[in-house]
Amino acid sequence: MSFGRAFFASCLGTLAALAVLFFLTFIFFVSLISGLSEDKKVAVAENSVLHLELDAQITEMQQENPLAGLPIPGAEVRKIGLLQLKQAIAHAKDDDNIRGIFLEVGQPMAGFSSLEEIRTSLIDFRQNGKWVVAYNEVMSEGAYYLASAADEIYLNPQGELEFNGLTISIGFFKKLFDKLEIHPQIFRVGEFKSAVEPFLMEKMSPENRLQLTALADGINDYMLTRIAESRGVDKQRLEEISDNMLVRNADAAVDLGLVDSLLYIDEFTTLLKNKLGIGVDDKVSLVPYNRYRKSFSTYKKSDNEIAVIVADGTIMPGDGNQNDQVIGADTFVEEIRKARKDDDIKAIVLRVNSPGGEFVSSDMMWREIELAGQAKPVIASMGDYAASGGYYLSMACDTIVAQPHTITGSIGIFGIMFDLSDFLGDKLGITFDEVRTGDFGDTYTVTRPLTEAEKNFIQRNLDDYYNTFTTKAAEGRDVAHEEIQKVASGRVWTGQQALERNLVDVLGGFNDAVEIAAEKAGVGDDYKVRYYPTPKNFLEEILANLEENTQAKAMKSGLGEIYPWYKQVQKLRQYHGAQARMPFEMEIR
Length: 589
Known about the structure:
Blueprint: H1 2-39, E1 48-53, E2 57-59, E3 79-81, H2 82-93, E4 98-104, H3 112-125, E5 131-139, H4 141-147, E6 152-161, E7 168-169, H5 174-180, E8 183-189, H6 197-200, H7 206-231, H8 235-243, H9 250-255, E9 261-262, H10 265-276, E10 286-288, H11 289-292, E11 305-316, E12 326-328, H12 329-341, E13 345-358, H13 359-375, E14 378-387, H14 389-394, E15 399-402, E16 407-409, E17 413-419, H15 421-427, H16 452-477, H17 481-487, E18 492-493, H18 495-500, E19 506-507, H19 510-521, E20 528-532, H20 538-559, H21 563-571, E21 579-581, E22 587-588
Parallel strand pairs: 1-4, 1-10, 2-3, 4-5, 5-6, 6-9, 11-12, 11-13, 11-20, 13-14, 14-15, 14-16, 15-19
Antiparallel strand pairs: 7-22, 8-17, 13-21, 16-18
């Protein structure tokens, strides 16, 4: 029996080793093939149409999915880099082989500022006399806003169009914590710093409701204004359509002027053939976005470089991770420092898309940005979010450029500590006791409630952090401290509202920020743009994707409908230390 067990264990060990060897060999050959295909330039035929399928997660930078097309977990995940997409559309504008764009979008995973960037690029594409047509079976509110940049919009006869206004939804955990006997101990500065409300309340505070209402109204008003311009429909009529949900079906969407016609896909294909002037039996030459990106190079010979340093995600200590959308303070500081010391880099554009995060990390990054600003122009380009810690980074820049939709501001501080003593004692039967030296020997503990002295100590620290935040904001914006305090208190604003309150300098997009950087650097049109941090290599990406997506898929399968709530609870692990973070987790739909 012992021999049998040993033999069987040896066989299993051999099989495991062979499986690992096979996997590594497979990865090597996939990497080799992928590398060869990357080097091969794609040819674009004459009379082609650029096909943009944008039902994907829109991230700031392109994050290649090396598992795409393989029959393994994670292969179905699609991510599109906003900045690379804008490059492709700009190149297609001057590409004689591209006649137009087929925009296929139904449920894009992007904020309105990202959609605005793409929308602006599509409108610019049309300036050369080229056309953009949009078609899908279903269009969400965001998808329709993007599609409204097209010359023509088509919908499936049985399709659906969402046009009923915006909703900002927040989940609250107080009842859950009450049932589990978990007691949040909250510290904050600013009546609008409402990131802690989900742990204390069952609904929004009046202050939070006020700021979110203003935020939703501001975004919705801007969106309706732009749709009215594009579609030639009176804005007040659009408000009536939206408020009363008059788009009940596809026919109503046509009658109300939101779409041009209802077509099945074969009819839409015939329409494309007519636009291209080809026969009914000819095939439309559609060039997918991922292939088109390989048809051209963005390389430009110049001794002048504008470095675009991307800060996308939550601010945390340590190294960054683009896949998890984490801005690591150490990684970011290193990139800024290298750009500051590189004489070939004449200016820096800081591309910020962050709801904030850990305060000390934000301050470390702020310091390096300030030093860089003493050596060369540093311009902030705000994306969907530049709130709290995200604004902390931006306020050190020479010029701040925001989209009208950008959620910004949130100048405030909070901290959370959880008292788990009742949960551990009553639910799990675990109790604790302690001895210590002094009154503060074990302040940061979850095994007992904090004393009043400890609470006062933590609150005083947060008050100091808040004073640091507002003082540096006032210095960065060159205004009195009292003026910053009027628009602080943790309140968030749209980019338009922030401009009116002197929190930003210019309304515009990424291209505007690059042009401002070039102008301030005095390089005219003689410059090249390079993006940092440098993406991971193929092998690093494939291993990271495989691990991340396998774990996520297993958790989703096991937890089912409660998986989103599990993700919310997991985020609590990031709330260590003082937080300069956006005052709510937001879903706009």
